Amino acid sequence: MSAPPTQPELPAQPEPPAASALPARPATWTGRVREAAVAALPPEKLLPESQPTYVASWIYVFGVASLASLVVIVASGSILALKGPAWWHYTGVGHFFNSIHLWSVELFFFVMVVHLWGKYWMAAWRGGRARVWVTGAVTFLVAVPCALTGYVSQQNFDAQWISTQAKDAMNAVGVGAFFNLTNFGQMYSYHVLLLPVAVVGLVVAHVLLVRRHGVVPPIPLASSSSGPSDGPRGASS
Amino acid sequence: MFSNMHAAVLAAIINLNHPAHVIEWHFIKLSVANVVVIGLMLVVFALAIVLPFPGAARRAAARRSAGGR
What we know:
By secondary structure, chain A is mainly α. Helices cover 59% and strands 0% of the residues of chain A. Chain A has eight helices and no strands.
């Protein structure tokens, strides 16, 4: 008798993964927020060690110059807020910090405008960066009343003159009923809390979006076929 | 900290004790101080485009030799 034919050997089937091996979706909202944040901005993208070659240009310096000015504005403004709005009128140290605050604001707007011009002519909204552009533009718009409420918080004749002139403009556009420039308490609250929080929040969102999408490359020359394009999001290094 | 003497010296250099000078052109009315700042911003913008950034060429060469962008 011959031996019974053996069954041909089938290729091994992969074992279905155990339930425990699958990446489990976090059960809590904090876990889900963490996973979404890490997916959107992994650590190497959030804090990169290098930038593309095209970033080595003076025109790319003005964004970080705006950030540096904002840090000085917030620091000097915090000292002025701690000592009260009249402090700078009767002490030399107060006058010094008030001047630091004023000139850092002047510098902030100076470098922010140059940054805005540079990004406008680079068409910095290319490559899916519309939100980067919009947050930057809105930051500029919110920073203007933030500075102007500072002028009416000086507690001197200059502040009185500005507030009584500007109230007519506010009334003319219909916001004077709830934005009263002759109300010092309201203007001071706007200047030291509400508008700075908005500016800082917008700047944080702007910087995180730049990190996510990468610094916008220059527009390639028409004859150049190998220059940097606005390319895929995040192709920044 | 500025003493009164320093302030007096600066005040002697720049006389600010007069109404602001303004430039008027049709409906546009700007103080000279603002026009100077706008002019400075334009100059800085132009310089930022044309001036070479320190180390840019060296970095570009290093990236090229490493095969990166």
